[in-house]
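Researcher: We are triaging several targets before committing to wet-lab work. For this one, the compound of interest is NAP. I'm pasting the protein sequence and the ligand SMILES. What I need is the predicted three-dimensional arrangement of the protein with the ligand bound, expressed as structure tokens, so it can go straight into our comparison scripts without reformatting.
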Amino acid sequence: MCTAAAALCIALLTGCSIGTLSAGDEKGRVLVAGATGGTGRALVKGLGDQGYQVRAFVRDEKKARVVLGDDIGYAVGDVREIDSIRAALDDVDYIISAIGSTPSDKSNNPEAVDYGGIKNLADAAVGTGVKQMVLVSSSGATQEDHFLNKTFDNILIWKFRGEEALRASGAPYTVVRPGGLVNRPGGISTVVFAQGDTTTGIISREDVALICIAALQNPTALNKTFETFNSDVEGENDWPSLFGALEAD
Ligand SMILES: NC(=O)c1ccc[n+]([C@@H]2O[C@H](COP(=O)([O-])OP(=O)(O)OC[C@H]3O[C@@H](n4cnc5c(N)ncnc54)[C@H](OP(=O)(O)O)[C@@H]3O)[C@@H](O)[C@H]2O)c1
């Protein structure tokens, strides 16, 4: 761990600015796909709060800067175009994806985004310095007859295909399957983790972001897939117990 005093000393000796020795450098750089979305915004804030450097992978940088500000890095691209992802991965340690397809846009549909886009992110990560990819998928991903498949272009079926592409890619991963997302403050109600895709519930987007961040650099979160919901108990989450109790895929 580099203390502020040590950083100052090194900066004076080397002539480097202290900014090059920030806590973010120590924790690593995270490429956030879907950064302008509800969960993505919570991810950007939470990662910054916890000392990570953030590079937002966005389709429209001007629009994104209005939402996310100027204190983070940006890479412009589209998950349907793998070359745009490759160009964004320089010096990236982790990827978190909270992308989601756009029901109103036929070309940005679940097959192209929730499957094809996730496959592109995972395939692009392999062979680079990326140490882990965390994917926000959905509870119900294994349930082919789920009503959401009928309403939204087989969205859960394609999300499951996206998960499968990540699991098969060889990139170290964590798949988080939240229940119904709600906009309420995170860090208040504890979260529960489940496996087997048989339970349902709701969860704050901010809590989903906190889970994704807690999974980073956590060996007990690697190569695991789980559902998650808010409980009705307030308190702090015991991340080691939650992740440690999960079976690996
Ligand atoms: N809604 C629920 O109850 C629920 C439940 C379980 C799981 N989920 C899943 O949880 C995740 C997060 O949901 P959310 O509601 O927080 O997200 P959201 O607000 O819908 O945001 C989606 C994000 O994906 C980006 N995106 C869409 N197409 C893209 C493309 N082709 N290339 C790059 N970026 C693209 C959007 O960027 P732009 O700004 O460019 O559009 C936006 O940042 C999604 O995967 C969602 O399906 C949702």
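Researcher: Any quick observations?
Model: The first strand starts at residue 29 and ends at 33.
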